[in-house]
Each structure stands twice: as C-alpha cells, then as structure tokens.
C-alpha cells in the first residue's frame, strides 16, 4: 500500500495483490460475456450486456481498491482489548469504492433475474428501490464511527429481507408460469443469489461494522463473495439463456 490515505489498519501488499487479481478476473469475464453475445441474434443480447456491465464496473472498482484508493480512514472502536494489530483505538480504512460498485451492479443483478422470471414492471421497480436502500444504508453505516452504525445495518438487512421475499414468493410464482428454461434458470440463479446475498451483512459485521477481521481478511471475504455473485452467477445465467429468446419474456 504505497498510495492513498493511510489508516492504522489497512490492507497489506497481499490484500492489494488479491484485489488486482479479482480486477483481472472481472475484466476477463467482461470480454468473455461480450464475446458470447455474438452467439445470439442482436435482439436477444440483453442479458449478455447487463452481465458484462456488472463485471465491467466491478473490474474498475477492484482496480481502485488494489491501488488502495476509493477508501477513507475512519475512527474505529476496537472491540478486542489488546488486539495485536493496534492499540485500543485507531483508524480503519473503509472502502467506499465497494458501495459505488454495488449501487450500480446489484440492481443490474436483480434485473437479470427478475426479467428472466417475467415479473411485472412495478414489482421490479420496488425491488430495485429496496436494493438501493440496502446499499446506501450499508455505506452510511460503514462511514459512521459510533454504535449508530448498527441502526443502518438493521435498515439494510430489513431491505434485504424484502428482496428475499420478492424473489422467493413473487418472482418464483411468475417463473413457474413461464416454465421451461426460464423457470429452470430462475430457480438455479435465484437460489444461488439469495444464499450469497445473506453472507454480505455477515462480512460487513465482521469488517466495517465490528472491526473483528483485518482489512486483508475483508478483501478475501468480500472478494470471494463478489466472484461468486458476479462472474459465476453471470455465467450460470448466460448459459441458462442459451435457449431462451427475448420474445418469450416479452422483451
Ligand atoms: C450491507 C450492509 C447493510 C446490510 C446489508 C448489506 C448487504 C449487501 C449485499 C451486497 C451484495 C453485493 C453483491 C455484489 C456483487 O459483486 C450493505 C453489506 C443487508 C447483499 C451481490
């Protein structure tokens, strides 16, 4: 970590290298998804474009984080007395670049899924609104120095519960009506997404929230989750769409 603002608790060169590796993977997947779009007629490429957009934005966010940019030192309460990292008080670097990525990419991930399920537009919009609330409350909470941060975490988790309800009940019903590959793809990708998304508030609680794990551990936790949520989820979705045409979904 040679550039950027310095905090008492910040990523080491290992964390930085890991962020750059994820950056490269996101970039490669963006090219792959754009390349795969050519296997479809021009009118049937929406899901390739959305998914490539998701990994493209993540590629840039990971470039910033690998460079120790897109972060700000925040005064942290150290919940472990005698912690081996620092004394009883100090700052931790908070990567707000993560949230700028998520505020763009998580609505696109939901759009991928809700369009596959044939959910009506008003339901799509209200679900995307809940998603924006979830990410922004997470960001505000992460930048908060006091215990009030957990209030923001609670609002964000309530928004995630609403999203989970929409996917598990509402969207599932619409996907079942469509049947065939749309239903199969929605079921696989939808269950995968719900499982992964509930791990994010846990990562937050251990990192920005409770300051329990080192920023290098945070890099690995969020990094593995992001690889599963973007490139792996995206590949499953795009492969699921091989035999689905946009007209079947009313797009
Ligand atoms: C926060 C903290 C506030 C409470 C909740 C959160 C959930 C975040 C999620 C993020 C998903 C990100 C993805 C990124 C893809 O690369 C903001 C951590 C509930 C679910 C899928």
Largest sheet data: 2 strands, antiparallel
Bound molecules: retinal
What amount of the residues lies in strands? Answer: 5-15%
- The percent of residues in helical segments reads 55-70%
Mean pLDDT: 94
Radius of gyration, whole Å:
19 Å
Element-level helix/strand string = HHEEHHHHHH
The best one-word shape is: globular
N- and C-termini, Cα separation? 46 Å
Low-confidence runs (pLDDT<50, min 5 residues)? none
Class computed from helices, strands and strand pairing: mainly alpha
Number of E-state strands: 2
Widest sheet: strand order? 1-2
Number of helices: 8
Detailed description of the structure:
With 251 residues, the protein is mostly helical. It is built from 8 helices and 2 strands; from the N terminus they run H-H-E-E-H-H-H-H-H-H. The protein is globular. It starts with 12 loop residues before the first helix and ends in an 11-residue tail after the last helix. 38% of the residues are buried. The model has no long low-confidence stretch (mean pLDDT 94). Bound molecules: retinal (RET). Retinal binds next to helix 3, helix 4, helix 5, helix 7 and helix 8.
Question: Which descriptors apply to this entry?
Answer:
8 helices; two-stranded antiparallel ribbon; binds retinal; mainly alpha; globular; 6% strand
Q: How do you describe this structure in short?
A:
The chain has 251 residues and is mainly α. The protein is built from 8 helices and 2 strands; from the N terminus they run H-H-E-E-H-H-H-H-H-H.
């Amino acid at each position: 970590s040679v550039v950027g603002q310095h905090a008492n608790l910040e990523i080491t060169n290992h964390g930085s290298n890991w962020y750059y590796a994820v950056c490269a993977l996101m970039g490669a997947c963006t090219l792959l998804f754009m390349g795969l779009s050519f296997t479809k007629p021009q009118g049937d490429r929406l899901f390739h474009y959305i998914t490539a957009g998701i990994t493209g934005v993540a590629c840039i966010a990971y470039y910033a984080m690998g460079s120790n940019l897109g972060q700000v030192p925040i005064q942290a309460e150290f919940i472990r007395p005698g912690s081996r990292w620092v004394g009883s008080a100090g700052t931790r670097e908070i990567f707000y670049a993560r949230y700028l990525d998520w505020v763009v990419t998580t609505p696109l991930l939901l759009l991928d899924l809700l369009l596959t399920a044939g959910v009506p537009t008003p339901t799509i919009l209200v679900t995307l609104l809940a998603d924006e609330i979830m990410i922004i409350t997470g960001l505000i909470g992460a930048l908060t120095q006091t215990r009030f941060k957990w209030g923001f975490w609670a609002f964000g988790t309530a928004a995630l519960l609403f999203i989970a309800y929409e996917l598990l009940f509402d969207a599932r019903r619409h996907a079942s009506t469509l049947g065939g590959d749309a239903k199969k793809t929605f079921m696989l990708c939808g269950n995968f997404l719900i499982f992964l998304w509930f791990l994010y508030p846990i990562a937050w609680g251990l990192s920005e929230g409770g300051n329990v794990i080192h920023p290098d551990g945070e890099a690995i936790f969020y990094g593995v989750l992001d690889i599963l949520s973007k490139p792996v989820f995206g590949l499953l979705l795009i492969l699921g769409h091989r035999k689905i045409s946009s007209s079947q979904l009313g797009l």
